[in-house]
Amino acid sequence: MSSVWSDPVGLPIGDSGAVITVGTFDGVHRGHHDVLARLAALAAETDRPSVVVTFEPHPLEVVRPSAAPPLLTLHDEKLEMFAQSGVSYVAVLPFTPTLASYEAEQFVDAVLRERFRVAELLVGHDHGFGRGRLGDIDVLQALGASRGFGVTVLPPVHAPDGQAISSTAIRTAILEGDLRAAAAGLGRPYSIAGTVIRGDQRGRLLGYPTLNLQPPSTRKLLPPDGVYAVRVQTPQGPFSGMLNLGPRPTFGDASRRIETHVFDAAHDWYGAPIRIDLMARIRDTRSFDGIEALRAQLARDESAARETLQGLATATTSGPLS
């Protein structure tokens, strides 16, 4: 399990230095996992600690807020992924206007060398750093040669369709409701985490009680409104279910909600933390002519969700996601 340090000066790094990677790591996707695995392996080979240096908030929120993308992983979600990666430490740097103003050489000297004693640096092929991201791979390799630390540039990891995996491509897939493509890039289903809150009990009246999720940060990327087949991770274990994301036009409710009906379970989860893994999109949100029409549609949604989840489980046990 990784240790998280918000004050990286306190990292217990010895005289031999550390093996480091630097980045935003939004999504902690398959490409990121390749970097993290190589980081941990090189650290073990050289008997040095491995350190992930990341930032909070996303740098674009400071440098160019209008261009800041919605996030695949909020801060706590990202740290959870790092904790499973096998690296020694995660150092979270507050991304401030001062840090944004550092030239590439200043960032290398003041941050990577002085604070983290970098001995080996691993970066992706498209890595950029320093003010305006002007510190490209060539600049970084030149600085490594002059400062005495190694620089390893890692090639991209490709999705089954041959495209390089990136946070941008995964965001596009989620916005298009293509959860299969998103999962192929992430190496896991896309998820929404939060706390169960009390709703208005309409689901119970319909025969489909729901868990209402406290809306996550507005910075979290959500897929299009609609009904989804999901797996729900709860304190009592995982359950299958179906989720309605969006308004409830049949009741004249235009607010965007996250409501999940859990199959074959009847626990009281109010106040509990849960994670909803979005497995497949079932249909769009639409209005129905009364309660009975809605109830009949919910029955069809349940059948479709159960069938979809069973198919996905069979595909998982028979071979890799492609």
Automatic annotation (TrEMBL):
Species the sequence originates in: Gemmatimonas groenlandica
Metabolic or biological pathway, per its Swiss-Prot or TrEMBL entry: Cofactor biosynthesis; FAD biosynthesis; FAD from FMN: step 1/1; Cofactor biosynthesis; FMN biosynthesis; FMN from riboflavin (ATP route): step 1/1
Function: Catalyzes the phosphorylation of riboflavin to FMN followed by the adenylation of FMN to FAD.
InterPro entries per the UniProt record, alphabetical: FAD_synthase, Riboflavin_kinase, Riboflavin_kinase_bac, Riboflavin_kinase_bac/euk, Riboflavin_kinase_dom_sf, Rossmann-like_a/b/a_fold
EC numbers on record: 2.7.1.26, 2.7.7.2
CDD domains recorded: FAD_synthetase_N
One Pfam family of this chain: Flavokinase
Keywords from the UniProt entry: ATP-binding, FAD, Flavoprotein, FMN, Kinase, Multifunctional enzyme, Nucleotide-binding, Nucleotidyltransferase, Transferase
Transmembrane segments: none
Record field: catalytic activity: riboflavin + ATP = FMN + ADP + H(+); FMN + ATP + H(+) = FAD + diphosphate
Gene3D superfamilies for this protein: HUPs, Riboflavin kinase-like
Name by which UniProt lists this protein: Riboflavin biosynthesis protein
Molecular function via GO: ATP binding; FMN adenylyltransferase activity; riboflavin kinase activity
Top-rank EC class of the record's enzyme: transferase
GO biological process, one term: riboflavin biosynthetic process
Family membership: Belongs to the ribF family.
Domain Riboflavin kinase: 185-310
